[in-house]
């Protein structure tokens, strides 16, 4: 009886030991599985963070290859457009002619979004918004005195002065846009150049007609 009890005890001890080892292995396996899940989660989070930090391609992006002409077009057209908006703002309380006022609104509506687009391009291209271009002057830009003279006028005198200055300003923008059409490499930038040539050439014709009747 003592021998049977001893053998039974040893068997039970062995079964217990094996069961304990099985549980330990299972636990280790679970740890490894969880560890793998944790690493996977960390990797996914890192990927999401990387995607969030990268500039998203949207309506204002200019995907594809670009060249120096594209960069120069954006860098020069931004301040050129900004001055047009400054001229347009002077019309508030000074312009008298309804057609001039309507044209001012059209300039503001078109050129401010274009400025934002070009800034977005330069950011995406890793280029500064402005850069020295040496002898590359921006055609049609008004001098400080031109802007002061415009601000000093009212009524019909403002309308005439505004039309004269904006014709020269638009002619300069059209010339810059035509350079981009000829030398640019980025399709999105060239599309904007097409828009500038089309819309501002039409506005020049309109401004000339306004001058003729004032």
Automatic annotation (TrEMBL):
<feature type="signal peptide">
    <location>
        <begin position="1"/>
        <end position="27"/>
    </location>
</feature>
<dbReference type="Pfam" id="PF03713">
    <property type="entry name" value="DUF305"/>
</dbReference>
<protein>
    <submittedName>
        <fullName>Uncharacterized protein (DUF305 family)</fullName>
    </submittedName>
</protein>
<dbReference type="InterPro" id="IPR005183">
    <property type="entry name" value="DUF305_CopM-like"/>
</dbReference>
<dbReference type="InterPro" id="IPR012347">
    <property type="entry name" value="Ferritin-like"/>
</dbReference>
<feature type="domain" description="DUF305">
    <location>
        <begin position="70"/>
        <end position="211"/>
    </location>
</feature>
<keyword id="KW-0732">Signal</keyword>
